[in-house]
Specification:
single chain, 318 residues, alpha/beta, Rossmann fold, 2 domains, four-stranded parallel sheet, 10 helices, 47% helix, signal, Peripla_BP_I
Amino acid sequence: MEERKMHTKLKALLAAGMLLGTVAGAYADGLISIIVNDPSNPYWLTEGNVAKAEAEKLGYTANVGAHKGDTNTESNLIDTAITNKSVAIILDPANADGSVGAVKKAVAADIPVILINAEINQEGLAKAQLVSNNAQGAALGAQQWVQDVGEKGNYVELFGAPSDNNAATRSNGYETVISQYPDLVKVAKQVANWDRTQGHDKMQSMLQAHPDINAVISGNDEMALGAIAALKEAGKLDQVKVGGFDGSPDAIAAIKAGELQYTVLQPVAVFAAKAVQQADSLIKTGSTGAASEKQLFDCILITKDNVDKYTAPFTLSQ
């Protein structure tokens, strides 16, 4: 009788142990919450899709939310990630200053945050910040732009979201190169918030004010594609050279069509996957494995001469 009782107790203990092991295993994998800007833009869509796929490949569950540049929405998404007991958050921040509070909330809840694509203006909060080398990419693009446009003429600039440090970094990078050519004169600069429709509308207004321009330099592909649409409508695309930045599928198509002179590929698929890998390392070992919090990924110039190598969106080569 005693032997039977001991056997029953042993079975119960083993079952409990197995259950605890299953729970522990589920927790060790857990949920990774991914928060991007706006997936209607193919760049951010790729960012979210790649991060989610990498998380699932590593054995986690993953979901993707979008703040669309709104810090209140971002804060609510962080709250949801905390409530859902996420083991890590991958965040493309909405605002260099305004996202600091959201990151602090996650950190206070002992959830590590890894930033991708854009930075915040405070170090030591996020476990890592993985971004394109925007200064290097802007210099590449501006040098190609001058080569395409020539060393003389009037041009306009389409500027991204002022809340995103990338916008100023790219614009300053353009200026550093173009200012070496005094006969290239910037006659207008408009904020179009990374958006194609705004790029179109701002291009229309700049064309009306400055009908003699011969070039447009843009902070991203979406704004550049909006400008191209406006130039087509005005019958001036053959007179105006346009340069972009991102390496989006539509930009690749526009280069092949002879409408866009070049784009600068941001390797978003590379650093989105790398961010999840570093989160996984952090969860399992306590370290991302990276030498520093801020990590820069070099950009690649795409022109008509090498565009056929880039058949898939936001990848280094195919």
